[in-house]
Amino acid sequence: MTTDVKDTSLSVEDKGSRGTAGSRSKKPPSRLPWWKRMWRDRTVLLLALPGMAVIVVFQYLALGGNVIAFQDFQPYLGISKSLWVGFENFQILVSGDPEFLNALRNTLIITALQTVIVFPAPIILALILHSLVSNKVRQVVQSVLYLPHFLSWVIVVAVFQQMLGGAGLLNNFLRANGWDPIDIIGNADVFYALITSQVIWKDTGWATILFLAVLAGIDKSLYEAASMDGATRWHQTWHVTLPGMRPIIIMLFILKLGDSLSVGFEQLILQQDAVGAGVAQVLDTYVYNNGVVGGYWGVSAAVGLVKGVVGLILVLMANKIAHMFGEEGVYKA
What we know:
Elements: H1 2-24, H2 34-40, H3 42-60, E1 71-72, H4 78-81, E2 83-84, H5 98-118, H6 120-130, H7 135-146, H8 153-164, H9 169-176, H10 191-216, H11 220-228, H12 233-258, H13 265-269, H14 272-275, H15 277-280, H16 283-293, H17 297-324
Antiparallel strand pairs: 1-2
């Protein structure tokens, strides 16, 4: 009896060991070849094809046009027959040209304002909307805040002129009550504040979409645990909400740095005549006024190329710093 029991136990162990070994020896399913995966996802790829074509033609193929930054480009000669001048067009960056320095100064000021004031605005608004208890009220408020994003800058500037212009509602009200009108639209001293308020009014509501999606994905049990530990609403926001939003905030901030020297061409060109180029001339309008209008194609292309290179360097540096602090950033190294 004892021998039989031992034999049975041994056989069971052998079977178990063979079963374990057999299960371990199973290979993971092989990945399909790329052409099979493309055929499998052919419908999605076909739907994405028009968008991909637009990006390739207007974003990647257009990069070849930067070659005119090294030429004395003449439109009637074309790229192939225009004279090569090397880095001569880039001398404007170091020659101290007053018009260029003014455009650079205005660009940096507006960039700083948009980074400090405009960028945090949708974060704060998303936190306020997320704190609303009623979903119906939240949906109504969101719908109202989203609407300005779908208006063109032509309409937005016209609305502000109708409200704050010399013959606008505000000044008509002041005149009707015996007060002096206030010059806001044509006042260079308040122009930076004006364009900052326009950007906030137009795009802040739409920019909350990503942050609200992140807030909806934060585990509710974290708030319950913090509340049981005696954390107030402010402590919950600081220790639970903001850490949950940190990855998307860092990623969007890095992307913002890449586009930091592009501060709104259409918005500024529409209001440049009202306040003058002294405060409304930025790098984008400088490229337009000197290239398309003035005919200095090579110089304008050189300025635009340097602006793009600086944006790329800022993105790479910011992403590297994010990795140093343990964040994923825009891409992984």
